[in-house]
Specification:
By secondary structure, the chain is of the alpha/beta class. Helices cover 41% and strands 12% of the residues. It has three domains: 98 residues, Orthogonal Bundle (Arc Repressor Mutant, subunit A); 235 residues, Aspartate Aminotransferase, domain 2 (3-Layer(aba) Sandwich), CATH 3.40.640; 114 residues, Aspartate Aminotransferase, domain 1 (Alpha-Beta Complex).
Length: 501
């Protein structure tokens, strides 16, 4: 193909959103990479190219200049424009072609052991590419979030925004927000802390990640609840820690005289409302856990992910409030209270760890967005936060009751569901002979999301069960989904009975 034929074959479309200059650059770049324009070949003049393609000369000149800057072409004074003789390696060139998609990884490339594990790991109940449907857990009532109020506060703050909020801030967080968080935790949760001990993080998962990186070495052991929170498992595995799954009963971590905790560097627990079974750790076990930490010079991470939404009595005092050995790190999040896109949470650390965690936060992502922190600080300080919690507590307990009554009416004998004193989900226990993964997969095909309890389990397999999230769904959605769930469960149960016969 001659140079003239080549330029006549280039496809430029005036109707595309992409500019003609960019289209010409892309076409010429592809011609160089695919060898239709060979190394050292001379290009026609920009005027001739413009005439051949029916475009302005300035467009052709700009396309040439783009490729000269990228290293595909070179301009020789008095001689014209040429394809460079020494092209980059073919693999690097192909990587730059967006139309070709991503290139295959060389067979010589290998993931680390951690990388292979992470490639297989999935967070149960989390599918951001699809809108949530009942009964996906950890979904909050976004339609009831006071967005207009939040926007008014944001607008007010933006109008008077000091220049300091456009600069780098303290990695530990916006000081006024740390103050109001500390005040709130002391009053509502019995947390013993000064505002300087509060580190503002990008959600609970980052709190776990920072704690893992500051407190654990590769090869250290970390005790985790089983069943428990897969996000904690991933954070600890990511730093090379060895997980020690410890059995959970109806009260939480099953620490007994005949079943003491083994030696470990760290234990991660949800004492107020165990995730996912919902137990509350009794005082005797809490004191035993603190004694274990002192004896083994170990750390305790207290994950208080949904303490605001307790429906029987008031919020329980935090384990951290009992700590006299400075071994408990207390973490919480605003994702469940307000909305998950906010990406703000907090970690309360002992005084001697403030510098280490502030530095690690700076290394991880420098700081959480200051403007959002300022809005949240005002939202809490002006009393809106407390009012929102009180409102949502009533909404969520009502929705739990709707689900319980619907299950009792339609699923008696097929699903054993008991009330929960806190949280956003219930556990539905399956009849003997039903495998929760198989049931969950079948329900998924019918458009119902009920993650199997086994996905939250490492070693201590118990009775098969399903997670039933209710907080983010209104009455009609819950009733409709329960009816569909009952239809599917009866069908599955009949198949099992026919197989046994």
């Amino acid at each position: 193909m001659t140079r003239t034929e080549l330029f006549r074959s280039l496809e430029l479309d005036h109707r595309r959103r992409t500019s003609l200059r960019q289209q010409l650059s892309n076409e010429l770049r592809r011609s160089v990479i695919e060898g239709r324009l060979r190394p050292g070949a001379k290009l026609p003049s920009s005027r001739r190219v413009a005439d051949e393609l029916g475009i302005g000369r300035n467009t052709a000149v700009a396309a040439f200049e783009q490729l000269i800057a990228e290293g595909y072409l070179e301009a020789r004074h008095g001689s014209g424009t040429f394809v460079v003789v020494a092209l980059p390696e073919q693999s690097l060139l192909e990587h730059q072609l967006s139309s070709r998609g991503s290139t295959k990884i060389s067979s010589r490339s290998r993931l680390s052991e951690l990388g292979r594990w992470l490639a297989r790991f999935r967070v149960p109940g989390l599918d951001p590419d699809r809108p949530p449907v009942p009964f996906r857990p950890s979904v909050v009532a976004l339609d009831l979030f006071p967005q207009s109020l939040w926007n008014r506060i944001r607008s007010r703050i933006a109008r008077a925004l000091p220049t300091t909020l456009y600069r780098y801030g303290n990695a530990a967080g916006y000081a006024p927000l740390r103050h109001v968080i500390a005040d709130y935790l002391r009053a509502s949760r019995g947390v013993r802390c000064d505002w300087r001990q509060v580190v503002v993080v990008s959600g609970a998962q980052q709190a776990l990640d920072l704690a893992a990186r500051v407190l654990l070495n590769a090869g250290d052991s970390a005790i985790v609840e089983d069943p428990g929170h897969p996000g904690a498992w991933a954070a600890f595995r990511a730093v090379g820690a060895k997980l020690i799954p410890f059995r959970v009963d109806e009260y939480g971590l099953a620490i007994e005289e005949n079943c003491p905790l083994p030696q470990a560097r760290l234990a991660c627990v949800c004492p107020s409302h165990q995730y996912p079974l919902g137990g509350t750790l009794p005082l005797r076990r809490r004191l035993t856990l603190l004694t274990w930490a002192r004896q083994h010079r170990a750390w305790i991470i207290e994950d208080d992910y949904d303490s605001e939404f307790r429906y029987v009595g008031g919020p329980l005092p935090a384990l951290q409030g009992l700590d006299r050995f400075n071994c408990v790190l207390y973490m919480g999040t605003f994702s469940k209270v307000l909305h998950p896109a906010l990406r703000l949470g907090y970690l309360v650390v002992p005084n001697h760890l403030i510098d280490a965690f502030s530095t690690m936060k700076a290394i991880a992502d420098r700081q959480a967005p200051l403007a959002e922190q300022a809005v949240l600080a005002s939202f809490i300080e002006d009393g809106h936060f407390g009012r929102h919690i009180r409102r949502m507590r009533m909404v969520y307990i009502e929705r739990q009751q709707i689900l319980l009554e619907a299950v009792q009416d339609r699923l008696e004998g097929l699903l054993d569901v008991q009330p929960a004193e806190a949280g956003f989900h219930l556990v539905g226990w399956l009849p003997s002979g039903m495998k929760d993964t198989s049931v969950s997969d079948a329900l998924q095909e019918a458009g119902i999301e009920c993650p199997p309890l086994s996905r939250y389990t490492l070693r201590h397999r118990s009775r098969s069960g399903l997670m039933l999230g209710y907080a983010g769904y209104n009455k009609n959605e819950l009733l409709s989904a329960t009816a569909a769930l009952a239809t599917q469960m009866r069908s599955l149960n009949s198949r099992i009975v026919e197989t046994e016969v």
